[in-house]
Amino acid sequence: MSGEEEKIYISYNCVHKHCQKAAEEILTTIGKPDVIVAIGGGGFIPSRIIRTFLKQQGEKNIPIQAIGLSLYEDMGTGSDTIGKEVIRTQWLDFGALAQHFDSLIGKNILIVDEVDDTRTTLHYALTELYQDIKENAEKLGKNMGDTKLSIFVVNNKLKPKRAELNKELMNGGIYISGEDVDDKWIAYPWESDDIDTHTKHAIAQGNN
Predict the structure, then answer these.
(1) Catalytic pick from 117, 180, 182, 194?
(2) What's a GO biological-process term for it (predicted)?
(3) Please, what are the domains in the chain?
């Protein structure tokens, strides 16, 4: 089997459709998120696409905030790594959020990334966001209230995970995968320097 055949190619069309389907489920279960938190860099484009389907006519756009995380120690297969240690490279400015958005306390929050590989990154993002919001609430003399944390990934790899998601921290939030896939290297369109060839591979694999 060649290297090309071992990869899973995902087209922009495929990502778009996964986001549309996930948005429908989100709106009928937890309702429209107040804010989207994109895990960079794979979460940026899916966040922008899913916002299109979550926004109702006449409503304001859902704000998108970005966080950056890096994983260290071993490289894995796919566009995620297997590293055990997660390092913040970019995080939310809670002071600025409070000035312009009344903080994240009590909000319906959607975390977005492109792939759930070992789950290390998602576990860190969920845990740290919850803890930061809780600490901010305590400083203001408030409680977490209805703060809800949900997760959407374009693809979930069917493999043993190194970490699990604490449902208590999600507080009624949901986990959605656009599609569960085999544990192979996933090639996303925003990583390609030849989008025409990339799309041909995706169509041949039925991922369009």
Answers:
(1) 117
(2) hypoxanthine metabolic process
(3) 12-180 (3.40.50.2020)
